[in-house]
Write a structure and sequence with these properties.
The structure is a single chain. The chain is flat and about 45 Å long. It has one domain. It is mainly α. Helix 1 runs antiparallel to helix 2. The chain has four helices and no strands.
């Protein structure tokens, strides 16, 4: 299982997260100003969800993530039925 206490935040690259956040917010603002639709809020919410997932996956040890590789591979190969 993943042990949160073993991770050293001293070596975490917060500057990279800051740059990704700034560029993504800039992109949402540019797309919002170019279109007539008001999808800014939806894009911003999706950005926040993606940011949380990105930070979580960057903290988790990749050995833990590899345990789910077969499941994710099979899930990507099966077509989505909505």
């Amino acid at each position: 299982m993943f042990r949160f206490k073993e991770y050293r935040f001293k070596y975490y690259d917060f500057r990279l997260i800051l740059f990704i956040t700034a560029l993504s917010i800039l992109g949402v603002m540019v797309i919002g100003s170019a279109g007539a639709d008001n999808d800014d809020k939806k894009q911003f919410i999706c950005f926040l969800v993606g940011l949380v997932i990105m930070v979580f996956l960057s903290i988790v040890d990749y050995h833990f993530i590899l345990k789910f590789s077969l499941f994710s591979y099979c899930r990507c190969k099966t077509p989505m039925r909505l």
